[in-house]
Write a structure and sequence with these properties.
There is one protein chain. The chain is an alpha+beta fold. It folds into 2 domains: 104 residues; 146 residues, no CATH class. Helices cover 44% and strands 17% of the residues. The strands form 3 sheets. A 5-stranded antiparallel beta sheet has the order 1-2-7-8-9, covered by helices on one side. It has a two-stranded parallel ribbon with strand order 3-4. Strand 7 and strand 8 form a beta hairpin. Helix 1 packs antiparallel against helix 2, helix 6 packs across helix 11 and helix 7 crosses helix 9. The radius of gyration is 21 Å and the shape is globular. The N terminus is likely disordered.
C-alpha cells in the first residue's frame, strides 16, 4: 500500500509538471504572437530564444523538480511520463523531450579519467570493430591530452577547438580524419550518438565526478561498458544492486542521478530549430547547450 501511495504522489507531481510547462510555453507563445506583427520570418532565431528562455525559467522555478530531491521514486516516474511533450499554438510547434542525462558515457570524462579500467575497456570495444587503436590517441591529441602529440591531427587542423569534444559534429571531424588517414571505414559501424554524451563537466573540479545511471544506459553504452554483445545489451533489463561501478565506470546513486537531457524541436513554417542541453535539477542550472537551426 505504501508503494502504491508513493507512486500515486509521483504521478501527481509529474502531471502538475506537464500542466505547468504547457502553460509556461503557452505564455511564451502569446508573447511571440504579439510580437510577430513587427518581426519577419528571418527572426525565427529570436522566437526560438524566447521559447528556450521560457523553458529554462520554468525548470529553474518548478516546484515539481525540487520535489524530486526528497521524494523517492519520483524521478523515474517523471522520466517515464516526460519523454515526449508536444505543444502547438497557431503556426508554431514545439516538441520537448526529457530523458536521463546519465544514459551514456561522457567522452571527455573518458579521455580525462584516472581509472585504469576505462580506456582498456574502450580499447576492447574498438578492437571488436577492427578500429585501429591510434584512434584513441587522435581523440586525446584533439583535446591536448597527449604531450607530445601522438598523431598529426592538430597539424592538419590547427584551428581545432582543443578544450574538450563539444558536440557530435566535433567528433565527426575527428572520425573523418581517422577514416582519411587509414583509408578504412570501421568507425561507421558504431553509433556514437547513442554511445557518447559531449560537453564538459562544469559543476565539479573533480574530473572523475561523472557517473552513469545503470537504469537508463543505452544499449550502445552498455555494449561498450560491459563488453556484452549489442543484441544482449538491447535485451538487458537493469536490476538494483550494490555495485558502485562497472569496469571502472562510476554508477550514479541518489542525487547524482538528478540530471536531465532536454531537447527542444521548434518548427514554424519552413524553419526548424533543434536545441539540446543538460539540466542539473539539484543546482537548477543548464549547461552544454547545442543549437542546430
Amino acid at each position: 500500500m505504501k508503494t502504491v501511495y508513493k507512486n500515486g504522489i509521483a504521478l501527481l507531481i509529474t502531471l502538475f509538471f506537464l500542466m505547468a510547462i504547457t502553460i509556461s510555453i503557452g505564455i511564451g507563445f502569446k508573447h511571440v504572437n504579439e510580437a510577430k506583427a513587427s518581426i519577419k520570418d528571418e527572426n525565427f532565431l529570436l522566437q526560438t530564444n524566447i521559447i528556450l528562455d521560457d523553458v529554462l525559467t520554468f525548470l529553474e522555478k518548478s516546484p515539481e523538480l525540487k520535489n524530486m530531491q526528497t521524494n523517492d521514486g519520483v524521478f523515474d516516474i517523471f522520466l517515464a511520463q516526460s519523454e515526449f511533450i508536444p505543444l502547438e499554438m497557431e503556426n508554431i510547434k514545439v516538441a520537448i523531450s526529457i530523458k536521463s542525462a546519465r544514459a551514456k558515457v561522457n567522452i571527455n570524462d573518458l579521455l580525462e579519467s584516472n581509472s585504469t579500467q576505462q580506456i582498456p575497456q574502450f580499447q576492447e570495444f574498438l578492437n571488436s570493430y577492427n578500429v585501429n587503436l591510434s584512434y584513441i590517441d587522435m581523440l586525446k591529441d584533439s583535446v591536448g591530452k597527449n604531450d607530445p602529440p601522438m598523431t598529426y591531427i592538430l597539424d592538419e587542423k590547427p584551428n581545432f577547438f582543443r578544450e574538450y569534444i563539444a558536440s557530435y559534429k566535433h567528433l565527426e571531424e575527428i572520425n573523418e580524419f581517422y577514416t582519411n588517414t587509414y583509408y578504412e571505414n570501421s568507425l561507421s559501424q558504431i553509433d556514437f550518438k547513442e554511445l557518447f554524451y559531449f560537453g564538459h563537466e562544469t559543476n565539479s573540479t573533480n574530473i572523475n565526478s561523472y557517473c552513469i545511471d545503470n537504469n537508463y544506459l543505452t544499449p550502445w553504452a552498455r555494449h561498450m561498458i560491459e563488453g556484452m554483445s549489442l543484441e544482449d545489451a538491447e535485451a538487458y533489463e537493469a536490476v538494483d544492486s550494490n555495485e558502485t561501478d562497472i569496469n571502472g565506470f562510476k554508477l550514479c546513486s541518489g542525487e547524482e542521478r538528478l540530471y536531465i537531457d532536454v531537447n527542444l524541436e521548434i518548427i514554424q513554417n519552413n524553419n526548424k530549430a533543434k536545441i539540446g542541453f543538460e539540466y542539473d535539477i539539484k543546482h537548477t542550472k543548464g549547461y552544454n547547450f547545442s543549437y542546430e537551426i
